[in-house]
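Minutes, project check-in
Item: structure for the 435-residue chain
Input as provided by the requester:
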Amino acid sequence: MSSSITRRQLLVEGSKVAVSASVLSALLAACGGDSGSGNQTSDVSLRYWVLGYSPNGGNQTGKLTDAAVAAYKKAHKNLKGVTITGYTGDQSGFTKLTQAVQGGSTVDVFRLPSDVLPTLVRAGSVAPIDDFLTADDKSDIASNLLDAVSTDGKRYSWPLWVPPVGMYLNLDIFKERGVDVPKDDWTYEEFVDIAKRLTFKRSNGQQVYGYSGVIDAGVVNTWPFIMGDGAYPLSKDNKQYTFNTPEGVSGLQKLMDLALKYKVTPPDFGTQTTTDMVTGFSQKKNYAMYSEPSGSSATYKALGMNFTVKSMPIGMSGKPLTTGGIGLISVTNLQDDNKLKAAMDLARYLTSSQVGHDITGYYLAPGARKSVEVSDPIALFKPFVPYTYITPIIAQWPQIRTILHDQIQKAVLGKVSAKDALNNPASEVNSLLNG
């Protein structure tokens, strides 16, 4: 992805994206992209790696992906088959994907977050999509997103969706404690008050916590607290580290206070996994609120959970803000032209509105194409898109977020102060940015 597009441009343009999360893919027949023409795909097999996929319908992503691939195969009789592999949405999972793609022997098509793309492009591991983009593709996909996946004039991914982080609320726990659902413009102080009221011990001895969230190098699920006072990790041109401002320090202190001062988080807050979060929220029901992008909302709806999603609390800046990235589907740099063509056709279908019509609920985040329509619960995230901070799409970002995660985690665990946590990475991050 090109770093020439600024965060502000991306956010402004992002507000123009037609978002809704029930049907994610662009109707290629309507868009002129003829994704369903089985005559175009020759006798090949493809290997598709999917973020968050559990096989045999193990989760909602697994069910939807299996159904989408089955629909595609039905329309493409010459395709031998598609093997699907899942990987986790954390640093370990992203490392596994990167190594597999660079290895060049186990992946053909893959879903990835935006900040992983520059590393793979620089390594020559990803095929440009330009020769496969139709005029209708170009008019349907938000132009800023096509710019975002461009490097040196070539585009290297099919944009899928923009998943902003929101605050999940377990409404059964709210009702249990007699707490009103907050307004959309709630503040950090109001959030703390609610989280304190939702932190309690049930009569059976089960401890319930008002809030939790994953703190991992691969996600930014708790970053809206850090950035809510007006701080940004990098300057607008992505050339200088800027998280260690007074606004950044006060924002990180607010995240730390949830654990160290207000005691509204579980004891292992800071080291929890995504699985811990989903289980605690939906099955154990001992987390009243937690922050995450839109993906899990479809799973909760399928489970019949009584939940809703609100914007992240507003910090000292006085403006709403959340964090996110761009979900993408790329194709490895295949040398077999026949296989490359088949892989690109599959990637187009999986990011089209047609797959949304074929598979109800396919889109787990607001879509990248204007033709994509979504419904609740994904539609609950649509209002957040215009003010979503998109993590920097530069080759150094995976290294930078790993460095920052180490310090943020130490701060939340009470091992370093907020000021030291944000000052410590400055020299190393600026060195990376300066090459």
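Outcome recorded: Residues 1-39 have pLDDT under 50 and may be disordered.
No further action items on this chain.
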